[in-house]
Specification:
2 domains, about 450 residues, mainly alpha, MetI-like fold
């Protein structure tokens, strides 16, 4: 019976592996072969521009430093909030935790539209300032600047850092810090010598994820940064769609995949050692109620900053959807049930919403099933190769969506995988990106189950 358990775990894990093989590795290999071996022969001269041209070196450098700067800014702004949620109880805490999840799940187009509605040249803030101070030009002019999309990156990843670090921080043993204070250590010494070393695995895990997401940023950089701010992902899109230079797009994709696979492997090792959760709930046992004015002020300032950062862009987007040149209106919401003369697909917007909900439900079922199977295997595995398989599961997040889209078109066009014209391809593509997130949510919870409970269940015949 014991010998059959590893076999059963591998059979369970084979489901997500087969899914990845069919809809990730196979399309990726096909587009690689088409790009590098179009006529069946290898021609290194086709990729000589990648090495000889300084343009691609500058793009890689820009991608790296903007991701690093976004990570540093997000950590600096989110760590105080993580401390507040880890150590204090206050009114509306659960509501704030629920609201903070919304920005992370927003599409990039919606996020870009929200920031343009708030801070764009014709955005809400500029409109109010022009009207209030009788200005001729918008005072806030950050369109198509690095600062604009860096701010959007912080908006996206603030919740990620707060949930990971805050949840881990809340679970630390407060007695260690109390003992250090009793022995004469100052609050600064206690934090630097006791708390911070314990937090480093969680901070490292959060930093790696933020860097990965910013390294592969596409929609936010393309819309808010403009055509002059090209990351690897944006350049892959330009080479594939605008120039149809598949060899160059494939080469850039391989660079992106290699960098992100290394980062995913490091994240998997940290997560395995520390059991850091992707969406770990903050513990409440060590939280205290703020009594002093200083603590209440610190909590209030952090909550105010969270509201300004996370709520005001969405508020501006909602207000913009209900206003036109003549004031407030509901015309745009009435238009959801009509088909405009300039519509590209001649489909009512509300029908498009229904289609999106249907695709999302189908993707949810597939992603949860595959993610649960993968997480169960990774949680029960005790081999050194677990980090490798964990990184493999995360690989779809490290791959250009443009590259994968072309891979689907090229590879899934003949039986038995003739899905190019099938509606099933949409939820399959969404599942490919979604189920690694499911693994990241479930895996830490499974790893926190005491081994003694598993052994007791086995003794009782389970």
């Amino acid at each position: 019976m014991n010998r059959s358990k590893p076999l059963l775990r591998w059979l369970l894990f084979s489901l997500p592996l087969i899914f990845l093989a069919l809809f990730y590795f196979y399309p990726l290999v096909r587009i690689g072969l088409l790009s590098f071996l179009p006529d069946g022969t290898w021609n290194p001269a086709r990729l000589s521009r990648l090495v000889s041209s300084p343009v691609y070196g500058r793009i890689l450098w820009f991608t790296l430093w903007q991701a690093a700067l976004s990570t540093v800014l997000t950590l600096a702004l989110a760590l105080p909030g993580a401390y507040v949620f880890a150590r204090y109880r206050f009114f509306g805490k659960n509501l704030f935790q629920a609201l903070m999840t919304v920005p992370f799940v927003l599409p990039t187009v919606v996020t870009a539209a929200a920031f343009r509605s708030l801070l764009g040249s014709s955005g809400l803030l500029n409109t109010w300032l022009i009207a209030g101070f009788d200005l001729a030009v918008p005072p806030i002019r950050i369109d198509q600047t690095v600062f604009f999309f860096l701010l959007a990156h912080v908006f996206y990843n603030y919740t990620l850092v707060l949930r990971i670090v805050g949840g881990y921080w809340a679970g630390l043993d407060a007695n260690l810090s109390a003992a250090a204070r009793m022995l004469g250590a100052s609050p600064h010494q206690t934090f630097c010598r006791i708390t911070l070393p314990q937090l480093m695995p969680a901070i490292g895990s959060a930093a790696l994820l933020v860097f990965i997401f910013c390294f592969t940023s596409f929609g936010v950089v393309l819309i808010l940064g403009g055509p002059g701010r090209a990351t690897l992902e944006v350049e892959i899109y330009r080479q594939s769609v605008q120039l149809f230079n598949l060899p160059m797009a494939a080469a850039l994709s391989l660079i992106q995949i290699a960098v992100n696979f290394l980062l995913m492997w490091l994240y998997a090792r940290l997560g395995r050692k520390t059991r850091v959760g992707f969406y770990g709930d903050t513990a409440t046992g060590t939280a205290e109620k703020a009594e002093t004015v200083g603590k209440k002020t610190f909590i209030g300032l952090n909550l105010l900053f969270m509201t300004i950062l996370l709520v005001t862009p969405l508020f501006a987007l909602v207000l913009r959807s209900m206003s036109d040149d003549n004031g407030l209106t509901l015309d745009y919401y009435r238009a959801l049930f009509t088909t405009g003369s300039r519509s590209v697909f001649f489909v009512e917007p509300i029908a498009a919403v229904a289609n999106s909900v249907g695709f999302a439900l189908a993707a949810m079922v597939l992603a949860v099933a595959l993610g649960l199977a993968a997480a169960t295997f990774l949680a029960s595995a005790r081999t050194r190769g677990t980090s490798f398989w964990d990184a493999v599961i995360m690989l779809p997040l490290a791959t250009s969506a443009v590259t994968l889209g072309f891979g689907f078109i090229i590879a899934l066009n003949r039986p038995p995988l003739n899905l190019r014209d099938s509606l099933a391809l949409v939820p399959i593509a969404h599942t490919l990106v979604a189920f690694p997130f499911v693994v990241r949510c479930i895996l830490p919870c499974l790893r926190q189950i005491p081994q003694s409970l598993r052994e007791a269940a086995a003794l009782l015949g389970a």
